[in-house]
Design goal:
4 domains, endoplasmic reticulum, 18 helices, GPI transamidase complex, GPI17/PIG-S component, involved in glycosylphosphatidylinositol anchor biosynthesis, Rossmann fold, 660 residues, alpha/beta, 46% helix, 4-stranded mixed sheet, coiled coil
């Protein structure tokens, strides 16, 4: 039976299919091929070979050794000062190897009294501003830093070697050149330029109603926006000002009305007031009674009579007690004519154990993970804050928009049945004097216990008024200390009697130490990330390296080169030490940002999990249903064509035979 289509028509249809397949092959090849551009591996290896400290941060120190004591002792003191200068110079020169934070003491000068300024000017010309340290051999003269910054003194009775060693340790501690303990560094957040601080007011249960007589408020009404803003400016503002070259700090506020605890605090009874405290309270009440003589005489006589009866009953009931426990006659006379209050019952407190502190915050149940930004009216912007809306203008992956760190600071108001809520000390059942605790890399908590009130005041109101600016001071002082610990700002303790200039100098030293530490951390992170990219490209053959990845790697290396060049500048136009460190941090931060963006580039990860053996598993079911019909149709057409040609040849033979 003849086909409804001729062979030529079916051949044209099959040819159209094969033409479409052949023409799509270049596009398929381009879309599935992996682009692997060359990376500057030699430059990366040069930075990797530098080890733990890819960048050396130069540090210049000038030590001025003065002579203390009386004029008659000047000869011996001068000899001691000369010996101390020699010994101290030897010790300081030994610190030229990089410290754990990659500082390297490049210039050390130990000079006599009065020679510090020219020496400092000389070092300033070479390596920027130097740290000037002045000290005296007299026991009363303090070791000082940066314009007489008081620190510690060395005893003149100790040997020269011991004095020099003690001074060397004091200098290293003051400049924070020592290794940071893990217990301290683990509390700090990883470095990020943008830090968002969220100030939470959490009421454990604000739905508890007021009782009819003597009770407590169920919680706080909320934040007073103006009071909170003033408290933040007064306590947190100076920290943000000192760290303006390191962090941009933004603020948000949040109020929660129900934040239950996942555990039950330990209930404990503590002794009530002692007898002297009771008598002191009675005496105070008596003085208040004398000041208020407006009550009528009949009521006064009745109170006097009842008071005497109660006092006599109390004395009769205490006759069997030990004589030493009885108050003296002078103390008993204090209660004459006034009602003797009942001795207080043991006080009930609630303690949070150290184990419960680790699970105190329930972020998932309390909704602390993603707070909504506060409006301008709800929480006025302080002059030192950076608004988060400005960062939304930048595109994803830009160097300005970096990873943001969020710190939570919680003012927790316990429910009435958990008050007072205190913290239990370690290895003891006593309550700690501190009302706050720090959660590493998360934030801090302050426990606020509302004082008891009489039901006669604001009977219908179950919530206490918002805290004023002065009422927030205790919590803000704790929060400020926690913020410094979380950001890594460790300010040396100023001795008693230090001037404002000395305290500011210590803050400047701590700020520069933090700058140096962050520079070393970000530079080290950038080099490690670049090294990881190079190792991955060698290990995974189908890892894509496109133009964006290559450009980011080149930009990171250029930023590292600029960082190194920043510390090599030797002219006075480089600016002060703080300015130079700020620019260096900008370079290292940009290097880390570009390296991280290259490592997590979406083009680089597109075909990462598509190895060669997976291609057959994917292409077989994809191209099989298409290729088999085309190949079968092509074979069938070829077979029909051969049959047709054979038939034609046979016909030609038969026709030729007939003609013969």
């Amino acid at each position: 039976m003849a086909s409804f289509q001729t062979w030529h028509k079916r051949s044209a249809i099959l040819l159209a299919f094969w033409t479409a397949v052949v023409l799509s092959l270049p596009a398929w090849w381009y879309l599935t091929s992996i682009q692997r551009l060359a990376l500057p591996q030699e430059r990366v290896q040069d930075w990797v070979q530098r080890g733990h400290c890819p960048i050396r941060i130069p540090l210049a120190i000038v030590v001025e050794v003065g002579v203390g004591g009386e004029a008659g002792q000047s000869a011996s003191a001068s000899a001691s000062a000369h010996a101390l200068r020699h010994e101290l110079a030897t010790l300081l020169h030994s610190t030229r190897t990089p410290t754990p934070n990659c500082e390297q003491v490049m210039q050390v000068q130990v000079v006599a009294e009065g020679e510090a300024q020219p020496a400092q000017a000389q070092i300033s010309h070479q390596h920027g501003s130097a740290h000037l340290i002045t000290l005296s051999l007299s026991a009363s003269a303090p070791l000082s830093l940066a314009n007489d910054l008081a620190s510690s003194s060395s005893s003149s009775t100790a040997s020269i070697a011991d004095q020099a060693h003690a001074i060397h340790q004091a200098i290293c501690k003051l400049l924070q050149l020592e290794a940071i303990p893990t217990s301290i560094s683990a509390r700090e957040i990883p470095y990020s330029r943008r830090v968002r601080t969220v100030w939470h007011l959490l009421n454990e249960d604000a739905s508890v109603s007021r009782a009819s007589n003597h009770t407590s408020y169920s919680g706080l009404r909320g934040w007073d926006a103006q009071a909170l803003n003033h408290a933040l400016i007064r306590h947190i503002g100076p920290i943000a000002h000192h760290l303006d070259a390191i962090h941009d700090i933004a603020t948000e506020s949040q109020v929660k009305w129900y934040a239950p605890l996942d555990f039950q605090p330990v209930e404990m009874h503590v002794p009530g007031e002692s007898v002297p405290e009771v008598l002191a309270t009675v005496a105070q009440a008596q003085r208040q009674q004398r000041d208020h003589q407006s009550a009528d005489d009949d009521d006064q006589v009745t109170r006097d009579a009842s008071t005497q009866d109660e006092a006599s009953k109390a004395r009769d009931s205490d006759e069997s007690a030990d004589a030493e426990s009885l108050p003296s006659e002078e103390q008993q006379q204090l209660v004459t004519g006034i009602a003797l209050p009942e001795l207080p019952q043991p006080k009930k407190v609630h303690l949070i154990t150290p184990d419960d502190l680790t699970v105190f915050v329930n972020s998932a149940a309390w909704g602390l993970s993603s707070p909504s930004p506060a409006g301008e009216y709800e929480f006025p912007s302080a002059p030192w804050t950076k608004r988060l809306e400005e960062a939304q203008e930048h595109a994803w992956g830009s160097e300005e928009l970096e990873e943001e760190r969020t710190l939570h600071f919680v003012l927790f108001v316990a429910a009435p049945h958990h008050r007072p809520l205190l913290i239990q000390t370690h290895n003891s059942t006593a309550a700690s004097n501190s009302s706050g605790f720090l959660l590493p890399q998360w934030g801090g908590v302050f426990l606020h216990n509302i004082a008891e009130v009489q039901a006669a005041s604001d009977v219908g109101d179950a919530l206490a008024p918002a805290l004023g600016s002065d009422d927030l001071d205790p919590a803000m002082r704790v929060f400020a200390s926690q913020l410094r610990a979380l950001l890594g700002l460790r300010i040396p303790i100023s001795p008693r009697g230090s001037t404002q200039g000395q305290r500011e100098a210590r803050i400047a030293v701590a700020r520069q130490a933090l700058l140096r530490r962050r520079i070393a951390e970000t530079a080290r992170e950038a080099v490690r990330t670049l090294d990881g990219i190079i190792k991955l490209t060698h290990k995974i053959e189908n890892l894509g390296i496109g133009p964006r990845v290559r450009d980011d790697v080149m930009s990171a290396l250029d930023a590292l080169d600029q960082l190194e060049m920043e510390f090599r500048l030797q002219d006075s136009s480089a600016g002060s030490t703080s300015e130079r460190l700020s620019r260096a941090l900008s370079h290292s931060r940009r290097a880390a940002s570009h390296a991280s963006r290259a490592f997590f580039n979406r083009d680089m990860l597109a075909l990462l999990y598509f190895p060669a053996e997976h291609k057959y598993a994917v292409y077989t079911p994809l191209f099989g249903p298409v290729a088999v019909p085309l190949l079968v149709a092509l074979a069938r057409l070829a077979k029909e064509r051969r049959k047709a040609r054979s038939a034609e040849k046979e016909k030609e033979k038969e026709s030729s035979k007939k003609e013969r």
